[in-house]
Amino acid sequence: MPKLPSPCIGVCKFKRGDHCIGCSMTREQKSLSKLAKKGKARRAMVTLVMAQQAVMGGYRHWDAAYARRCAKKGVEPPERPQPSGTT
After folding, report:
1. Buried-most residue among 1, 3, 9, 35 (CB within 10 A)?
2. Where are the domains of the chain?
3. Are 24 and 30 contacting, i.e. CB atoms less than 8 angstroms apart?
4. What is the pTM of this model?
């Protein structure tokens, strides 16, 4: 079974309060994502990044770029978590 790719989409410019403008990860989170080798750990990292993007806003371009990376690997990206308080 193919592995879920890293949430990094290759932009890597840290301008939004030390968060990457491409994926929203900090340098520390990028280092941790490289250590996430198992499926559950990778999925948890991607889910964390999606939740972080929802809070920070302005990362909608990431969805399409990450979906393309997943399609190349033949895996489905995780669903974006719903903001709390919505149904």
Report:
1. 9
2. 27-72
3. no
4. 0.83
